[in-house]
Write a structure and sequence with these properties.
Elements (H helix, E strand, L loop, with lengths): L1 E4 H6 L1 H9 L4 E5 L2 E6 L40 H16 L1
Parallel strand pairs: 1-2
Antiparallel strand pairs: 2-3
Length: 95
């Protein structure tokens, strides 16, 4: 176990990290009192998802599933607005 003060840790951080990765225990002290321990970070455990478990769970999808809702018609662009936006985008990307 090696104990270093904050100033020394700032000056030699790369070397201390290498030492910690090599298995050495590093303690960083403030005013000669241990404050923190420099340790190897363990990678987070990621549980693999099993999407096959959901197979067959969707029984029915309505034919109008992705149709716009009437409540939002006032927010939807008209065909003219869409065409204008497409022309503007085409001009912008062709430059």
């Amino acid at each position: 176990m090696r104990q270093v003060n904050v100033a020394e840790a700032k000056a030699h951080l790369s070397a201390l990290i290498d030492a910690a990765l090599g298995g050495e225990e590093i303690i960083i002290a403030r005013r000669n009192k241990p404050a923190v321990r420099l340790a190897i970070a363990e990678p987070p455990r990621v549980k693999k998802r099993n999407l096959a478990a959901m197979a067959g769970s969707v029984v029915y999808v309505a034919p109008d599933f992705d149709s716009p809702l009437p409540e939002f018609e006032e927010y939807m662009p008209t065909a003219e607005q869409v065409a204008k936006a497409r022309r503007r985008y085409a001009r912008k990307t062709s430059k």
